[in-house]
Specification:
Length: 442
């Protein structure tokens, strides 16, 4: 019987006394420098590898929105600036720490695979709308305003998008010609987002527009039908929780993700002494092999506001650009569904104090072997003697068959808790503070 991957992680941390060191290590993995943050005029933090998406989240917070508003806008903007990894036909998984009731919840809208195909049904519009509807305070149209503008006016092709284009196996000729620095205008996607802005996410699932999309997808071999689109619903649930010596650690509660690597995980979580690295190396290599052969490409995003509302998301669409099947009239690529090894490519964690009133740390990572790298970081460190930088070097040296995705993770840590002790916070380069005036903290 398959075991839920997050249940296995939960058992691992029940046995581990070293969660704090794990997070410190991960922060350094993201090239973290020790920054000093001020709570004066602080609106919150936003995290994304893409600067444009960071700015979208910043502007939402600066204009009165909260972390859920910022995250909704950032996810949609990633569909504009990173169409290789995020698509309206894709999906994701988020954890939300609600500062009002001190609870951490999971929103599961991971792309559901259509049986006997590689195709997935479009979960992302429903998921983002559900997040905003539950926690957002700004108007839905305001949340989509800047992503629509970026699609209409165009964005410059980034390093990562250019690299994805080169690696993609199947793309329309017009996309294959794109290079770093080129202007990418997506008028059709802007039109689709404008319709979503006016009418909500429901246009994807019922009505004439949804029918037209279904026919276009069906003609490309993706079995969208009016009936199966109507069945799509994101799932809210309480996150899995692990008690640690410092507080509580939360992992997504997902029915979508399950593990076929049960034996490997049982071996790994039995290694209470992390200096016994050699005992886990073969299991890790087998996991990495599966991750390399069946990668789930995506992006990681985080947002937190001055009140402590925190949203940590892992978003993806299967292969790079899916299978390269592009709905020209609608302006987006069709996504692949999850495969059994996709759990090795997703890391999503929130840690709070025992009373669940402050956030101590959070991490979001999505990409080939992201979870495997997290395990390697944990196992390669000699807690008694070896320093953190040498552990990072060990992890980097073991990543041979795939691209290193450590720098794309969003990592945040507050030793004394956020938002009450902002000066204790540290973050990697993908997470930036949002100030309403001059940044007095850096």
């Amino acid at each position: 019987m398959n075991m839920n991957i997050f249940s296995l992680i939960r058992e691992h941390f029940k046995r581990s006394k070293h969660l704090r060191q794990f997070f410190i290590l991960l922060l350094i993995a993201g090239c973290t420098t020790a920054s000093t943050f001020s709570d004066k005029n602080l609106k919150g933090f936003v995290g994304a590898a893409d600067v444009s998406t960071q700015n979208v989240g910043k502007n939402i917070l600066l204009n009165g929105g909260n972390a859920a508003d910022a995250m909704a806008a950032m996810i949609i903007n990633e569909a504009v600036v990173m169409p290789s990894r995020v698509s309206l036909s894709g999906g994701g998984i988020c954890q939300v720490f609600d500062e009002k009731d001190g609870k951490v919840k999971t929103l599961d809208f991971l792309p559901i695979q259509v049986p006997q195909t590689q195709a997935s049904l479009p979960m992302l519009p429903r998921g983002v709308f559900a997040l905003h509807n539950q926690y957002g305070i700004k108007r839905w149209s305001d949340v989509l305003k800047e992503p629509i503008h970026n699609a209409q006016k165009g964005i410059l092709v980034s390093d990562l998008l250019a690299r994805d284009i080169k690696q993609a196996k199947n793309l329309p000729a017009s996309w294959k010609k794109l290079e770093k620095g080129n202007l990418l205008v997506q008028a059709e996607l802007a039109e689709t987002l404008s319709l979503m802005s006016q009418s909500g996410a429901g246009i994807f699932y019922r009505g004439s527009w949804a029918d037209d999309m279904s026919v276009a997808a069906f003609n490309l071999g993706y079995p969208y039908t009016s009936e199966n689109l109507k069945t799509i619903r994101p799932n809210w649930s309480k996150s899995n929780v692990v008690l640690t010596s410092k507080g509580k650690t939360f992992f997504p509660n997902s029915l979508t993700l399950s593990s076929e690597g049960e034996k490997a995980w049982k071996k790994l979580i039995s290694l209470n002494n992390f200096t016994l690295v050699s005992q886990g190396k073969e299991e890790l290599r087998q996991m990495e092999k599966k991750a390399v052969e069946n990668s789930f490409y995506g992006t990681s995003l985080t947002a937190s506001d001055k009140n402590g509302l925190t949203v940590v998301c892992s978003i993806g669409m299967g292969n790079l650009f899916g299978d390269g099947m592009y709905l020209k009239k609608q302006g987006f690529f069709l996504s692949n569904g999850l495969n059994p090894e996709s759990q090795y490519d997703i890391v999503n964690i929130i840690q709070t104090n025992p009373d669940e009133t402050d956030v101590y740390s959070f991490i979001s990572g999505t990409g080939p072997g992201a979870l495997v790298d997290g395990i390697r970081l944990l196992e390669n460190i000699d807690l008694a003697q070896e320093n953190l930088s040498s552990s990072i070097s060990n992890v980097n040296s073991e990543i041979e068959e795939r691209e290193n995705t450590l720098g794309e993770m969003s990592l945040f840590m507050c030793r004394n808790g956020y938002p009450n002790q902002v000066s204790s916070c540290q973050a990697n380069q993908n997470i930036v503070p949002v100030y309403s005036a001059v940044n007095l903290g850096n």
